[in-house]
Amino acid sequence: MLDLCLKKGFEVVGVCCPIGDKYIGKAAAIRDIPIINASTLTADTMPDGVDLGITAHSFDYIGKLTRYKPRLGWIGYHPSLLPRHRGRSSIEWAIRMGDKITGGTVFWLNAGIDRGDIAYQDWCWIPPALFNKPPPDGAKWLWNEELLPMGLRLYSQALDDIGNGVIIKTPQDPTLSTFEPSTNVKDVYKPDLLMLEC
User: Fold this and answer.
1) pTM of the model
2) pLDDT at 185
3) Taking the mean position of all CA atoms in its chain, how far away is CA 60?
4) Which of 5, 138, 144, 182 has the largest CB neighbor count within 10 A?
5) Cβ neighbours of 53 (radius 10 Å)
6) What is the β-pairing status of strands 101-108 and 118-125?
């Protein structure tokens, strides 16, 4: 995602990641892009004058003041056809529930988890062979082969349009929404999400 932004000629004023991160942190350090420790990102630690914030398949919650600091807001990528399969383990749940298709969504962050307006979506088939694998293995294959490249294509389209002043925001249909819990949590349950604003 960082490479995509730079190739398109956007100025990247900062990267937020864990200190010592060997992926985006290393790529940012090589390019002398300031790094903000992931645990300290707030409206106060974020650079001024930012036009757009971008989360690339992030599991961190962006608080209200931080969300409103960029002039245009924040976009994020979620590997599902929102509003279906909101939540951290969306790919695995699509496989567990026997979905035949899935996809990816670039959306505008808001106060809810994976609930913001949709900017761009695309879909793909879930190969039947994945239903015979353990869901985590199937999810990993689907991410690597379909959903990661799809996310970069959708972000590329979003950045081109946003750079040209085209802002697309389509509200999610709440009657079609599902939320599934993280499969990494020991006691799996389906909470009624209430977000606390920072």
Assistant:
1) 0.90
2) 57
3) 10
4) 138
5) 22
6) antiparallel
- Burial bucket for residue 9 (CB in 10 Å: 0-12, 13-18, 19+): exposed
Question: Is the backbone peptide bond immediately before 135 cis, with ω within 30 degrees of 0?
Answer: no
C-alpha span between 13 and 34 (Å, rounded): 7
What are 74's strand-pairing partners?
53
| Of 48, 51, 104, residue with least CA distance to 80 | 104
Chain centroid to CA 47: 21
Residue 168 one-letter amino acid:
I
d(CA 147, CA 66) in angstroms, rounded, equals: 27
What's CA 182's distance to the chain center, in Å? 15
pLDDT in tens, 77-113: 999 999 999 999 999 999 999 999 999 999 999 999 9
- How many residues does the structure list for the chain? 198
Helix (H), strand (E), coil (C) string for 127-150: CHHHHHCCHHHHHHHHHHHHHHHH
Strand partners for 35: 15
